[in-house]
Write a sequence for this structure.
């Protein structure tokens, strides 16, 4: 086992700050288009899709679940269908499973083998999620990892680390913040951070309903 | 945590490390978005599937795996697998 | 062999040449079936250009733990054995 486990780019920089791989990827695309394996339009569509993904979609699922207990049950039963209900795109993964945090249970998601992540609902995963230290320590030292992310949980809270090794993508439903009970759904979604839906953060603390609402 | 069993380089759960998690994030560069889209398109049209992508990545020499960035690993794998399948000629991208 | 929620199982400690999705830290571990997922194409064969059929049952396993930290991991049925 080596100790040099991080994923920084060690290649010489060229082409205005891009790694050598950049030109090679463009060459790959060009060759595949020339050979008719795919088209520029295929690539354009997929690139547009990827850059359109953001955690605000996942946050809408969570906010709706917080205000609507029956929706929450549907979300827990089948997160793909629940996303479609809100006209959200759950992505190509066959199944998304929502994991509910409570006062007693805190979920945290990792893919120790690679980087599996519900990117349709959260956008592309952050670098740290794909990093070797996160992948190794999430399962062996979850509370240490949480502490690094600023999350301290009581000793009585059950921490459940979920390693998504196969076709299932997992999304955490964080606990609704104290003080947010009077807030309407539209004001709750912005409180739901991407990290809280991975399970390494908590939603933003609510400051109560906006004046005039 | 692994009972002394030999591990492949990608199999990181419980891998001993004292390294803190670097939380710095970067927006995906254009070439990374392109690489992601190449893989997505190849998957959608049946040329190369996700399991082949992962298998190709896992076949990287361990030191290369650990030093490569995320999408550099994808590039390695796609070149390897597409060359196996005869979609790319060996060394075709070097030209 | 299929398993039900709550059933005690053990993950095989066998070695496997080539692509597979059972992490090393899980092999040989005891656990309980937490969820029964659907069946999915077998990544072990699909990774080499085969169809991955027949599909294999996937389960979410709660690894045994005597602390308040638990690891849950998706494991295919053909990696599981009944625990005694």
């Amino acid at each position: 086992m080596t100790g040099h486990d991080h994923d920084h780019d060690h290649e010489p920089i060229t082409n205005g700050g891009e790694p050598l791989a950049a030109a090679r990827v463009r060459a790959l695309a060009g060759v595949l288009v020339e050979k008719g394996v795919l088209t520029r339009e295929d690539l354009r569509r997929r690139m547009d899709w990827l850059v359109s993904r953001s955690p605000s979609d996942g946050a809408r699922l969570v906010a709706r679940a917080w205000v609507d207990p029956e929706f929450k049950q549907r979300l827990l039963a089948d997160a793909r269908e629940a996303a479609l209900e809100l006209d959200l795109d759950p992505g190509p993964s066959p199944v998304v499973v929502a994991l509910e945090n409570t006062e007693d249970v805190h979920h945290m998601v990792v893919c120790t083998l690679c980087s599996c992540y519900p990117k349709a609902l959260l956008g592309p995963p952050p670098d740290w999620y794909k990093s070797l230290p996160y992948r190794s320590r999430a399962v062996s030292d979850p509370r240490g990892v949480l502490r690094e992310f600023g999350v301290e949980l009581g000793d009585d809270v059950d921490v459940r680390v979920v390693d998504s090794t196969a076709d299932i993508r997992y999304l955490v439903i964080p606990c609704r913040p104290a003080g947010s009970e009077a807030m309407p759904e539209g004001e709750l979604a912005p409180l739901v951070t991407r990290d809280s839906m991975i399970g390494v953060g908590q939603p933003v603390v609510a400051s109560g309903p906006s004046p005039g609402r | 945590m692994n009972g002394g069993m030999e591990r492949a380089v990608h199999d990181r759960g419980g891998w001993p490390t004292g390294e803190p998690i670097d939380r710095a994030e970067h927006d995906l560069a254009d070439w990374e978005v392109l690489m992601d889209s190449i893989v997505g398109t190849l998957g959608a049209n049946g040329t190369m599937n996700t399991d082949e992508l992962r298998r190709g990545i896992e076949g990287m020499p361990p030191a290369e795996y650990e030093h490569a960035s995320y999408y550099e690993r994808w590039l390695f794998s796609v070149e390897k697998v597409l060359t196996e399948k005869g979609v790319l000629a060996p060394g075709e991208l070097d030209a | 062999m299929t398993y039900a929620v709550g059933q005690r199982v053990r993950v095989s400690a066998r070695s496997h040449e080539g692509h597979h999705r059972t992490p090393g830290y899980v092999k040989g571990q005891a656990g309980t079936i937490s969820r029964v997922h659907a069946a999915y194409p077998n990544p072990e064969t699909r990774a080499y250009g085969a169809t991955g059929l027949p599909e294999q049952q996937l389960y979410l396993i709660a690894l045994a733990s005597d602390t308040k930290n638990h690891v849950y991991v998706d494991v295919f049925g053909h990696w599981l054995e009944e625990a005694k």
Summary: The mean pLDDT of chain C is 97. The first helix of chain C runs from residue 43 to 46. The first strand of chain C starts at residue 8 and ends at 11. Residues 8-82 of chain C form a domain with the SH3 type barrels. fold (CATH 2.30.30.50).
